[in-house]
Design brief:
This protein has 4 helices and 11 strands. With about 220 residues, the protein is of the alpha+beta class. Strand 10 and strand 11 form a beta hairpin.
Length: about 220
């Protein structure tokens, strides 16, 4: 587990692809459990350790995960996310398709809980949510595009759904139209950086996470 930032209020880790953010029905160990054990051992804490997930990223996705050490900090961080006072940047390697060098995608997404999948709908309907992201084409590989993505909203599978909708599914993401799986079952979507004002110290924080150890990421 790679800890990138830590103070008395929260810690930020670089989640590996394949790790769960929090426990689910699989029963596999989650980052939340790992971080609780890390704090318990590091500070020799007795009893239960409080740690709250500020954000979540999908299991096959990698990158920044923020965890709060106190309920007060969790409440403040939730407010920062809710009010969109945080800038979140992702890097995506997508299957190659001719697109504009930069763009803004605005769609209404509807989640299907049974399939654990989101879909673009043509107009606002019951249960749909407006979803906005901005992208910039930063590099072209032989068979893939590399996009830098700036999220304005945080919806279920938002980046994966919206990129698939413009025929640029994330590499390895067969759920959303990619041609083939990655060998390690990851998808090439990485939560790369966050930029926000610390809720307690009021200092600006810009935190970045290194890429996963995969050949295609190393090419960047």
């Amino acid at each position: 587990m790679e800890v990138i930032f830590e103070d008395n209020h929260f810690l930020v880790i670089n989640k590996k692809p394949g790790q769960l953010s929090q426990c689910d029905k699989t029963g596999d160990e989650s980052v939340l459990e790992l971080c609780k054990n890390y704090i318990k051992k590091k500070y020799n804490k007795k009893g239960n350790v409080f740690l709250g997930l500020v954000n979540r990223i999908d299991r096959p996705t990698s990158g920044l995960l923020i965890l709060s050490k106190t309920s007060k900090c969790l409440e403040r961080m939730n407010k920062i996310f809710r009010n969109r006072e945080i800038k979140k940047t992702y890097i995506a390697i997508t299957e190659k398709h001719q697109i504009k060098k930069s763009g803004r995608l605005i769609n209404f997404l509807k989640k299907n809980g049974k399939k654990n999948k989101s879909f673009v709908v043509s107009k606002e309907i019951k249960g749909s949510k407006k979803s906005i992201l901005n992208y910039k084409l930063v590099k072209e590989l032989d068979n893939y595009n590399v996009l830098k993505i700036y999220l304005e909203t945080g919806r279920h599978h938002q980046i994966r759904t919206q990129l698939s909708n413009i025929n640029c599914p994330v590499k390895g993401d067969v759920k959303y139209g990619a041609k083939r799986l990655n060998k390690d079952l990851s998808i090439c979507l990485h939560s790369y950086s966050v930029n926000f004002i610390h809720p307690v110290t009021k200092k600006q924080l810009i935190i970045k996470a290194g890429f996963p150890e995969l050949k295609i990421w190393n090419s960047l």
